Amino acid sequence: MASSTVPSSQPDRPPRPNLVFRQLRGPRSPAEFAASVRRAAREIGERVSCDARYVHRVEAGEIRCPNYAYERVFLHMFPGRTLTDLGFAPRSSVRGRRRRDDGDTPPAPVGAPALVTGESGGAPEPYDPHHPYDTHHDYEESDVLRRAFMTGGGATVAAASLGPLALAPDASAAQRAVRRPGASDAGALEEAVRRIRVLDDRHGADGLYRRASAPLRAAYALLDAGATRQRTADRLYAGAGELAISVGWLAHDSGRFDDARSHYAEALATARVTGDLGLEAHAFCNTAFLARDAGRPREAVRAAQAAQRAARPLGSPRLMSLLALREAGGWAGLTDRAGCEQALARAQAYFDRGTAPADPEWMTFYGEAELEGLEAQCWSALGDWPRAARHARRAAELQDPHFTRNIALYTAELADDLARGGHPDEAAAAGMRVLDLLPEVQSSRVRTILAGTARVLLPHRRAAGVSAFLDRHASLPRPV
Prior knowledge:
Layout: H1 19-25, H2 30-43, H3 52-59, H4 68-77, H5 135-151, H6 154-162, H7 171-178, H8 183-203, H9 206-225, H10 230-253, H11 257-274, H12 277-293, H13 297-311, H14 317-333, H15 337-352, H16 368-381, H17 385-398, H18 404-420, H19 424-437, H20 444-457, H21 466-474
Helix pairs in contact: 2-3, 2-4, 6-9, 7-9, 8-9, 8-10, 9-10, 10-11, 10-12, 11-12, 12-13, 12-14, 13-14, 14-15, 14-16, 15-16, 16-17, 16-18, 17-18, 18-19, 18-20, 19-20, 19-21, 20-21
């Protein structure tokens, strides 16, 4: 595998048709095939708004990789096959990627959604739908990227994420080196966002945050340098804002709340400068989550409501569902059960509408597992431990294996809810499963929850499995 992780600066190529998927459709019309997709979704409890237009887009290669809801449906329809067997690109090659404009595409109007479909869009590099990628390949790529972030210095990470620009020792030097950034710089910035998200999904934030500041400094140096073309400038602003949110999340998940607040505010300011409603909704979404975790529930409610106002024109029910859950978390923190239940009901109603073309790409993590996990957190905040444990267990069972960090998080929350609900033996068993994942996941959030569970279980050392869990937890090395 080539060592460079920066996309080619050559012009975008047209999407390659997905001939495999077209062959699987057989003699059925796109509308007939879409109906079969919807039926298959109902069989496994998914809701997708598949229509003939979606099928056309897949077959034309416009959707390189489906979102997780569609993935589950397609794998149910064609058992024994992988996404690549169905003609799609590996998810690790498209996670969080934006559609990149070509020279003939007019710029989107101010205020239009900055993030495109809920599936990954057009490919900036040559793409062969028959290339023999498999799960092992995806794992190897992730491991290579993980080593680059975890063991490399700031310059190594910057080089992997943003190319020669980020090798500059400071922002002013980067600005002098670039002068006028172009489309390739915007593409490198989008690539940095994608790679950070993939690594966080699998390994958590702690090892990443210390290394992520260099790409962010380089991104804002690109903005200061100023692009000649408005189209490129728009991409740079949107990319810098999304990168600020990604770095803010790394700070948030690793317990650096003040740093996270600063990064989210930076992203919000960038959104306001450009009138980017999608970026504004994303920034407010994360701000609400942070405020809840930092013990400012009323701010969480206000930020979530502001996010919903920004998101309403974008046409994404799934985004509105997530934002309603953010609001529910705030109401739970205020111990307002009625307000929480109302927001949870809205979140479920929006979620039941299914996916939509306007779903932002950064929301690929949001499926039924996340819905269950966030609801579990609400009931936990309200002290309803049995209900919290029920939802946390379902979240862990439903979570896609790609999101290792979330599996650890939901299982840690399950252990805590069981411990506080008077089931020490079950809590210890769940805690053991989390400990098994810690070598792969670096998340202060998960460790903090697990430490709280251990404290609750101390008086129950004689219960089955509790002593073994406590001893193993006590032997954990201290995070550096």
